[in-house]
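sorry for the late reply, my laptop died twice this morning and i had to redo everyting from scratch. anyway the thing you sent over, i finally got around to it. pasting the sequence first so we're on the same page, its 81 residues, then the predicted structure underneath. double check i copied it right bc i was rushing
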Amino acid sequence: MPVLEIAEGVLHFIGRIFVRIFFEFIFEIISYFIGWTVLKIFTFGKYPSAKDDSHLDRFVSVIGIMFILAAVIGFILWKSR
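ok and here's the structure:
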């Protein structure tokens, strides 16, 4: 039935939007603050500076994700002993 196919397509689209927003939230918000904290600790407060730069924001988020992944891998290796 065409109505069911349309409804399925609309629900699939809405689901994809929610997943995209969720992952964007994790990447931009959580990983940014973890990366910001890690960089502040390892650079003794020198980096990141207070400039508004989109490239800097992405870099700080990537550092946060790398730290999260390293922590998860470290925890798994620690528990496997």
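The chain is about 85% helix and 0% strand.
thats about all i looked at so far, will dig more tmrw
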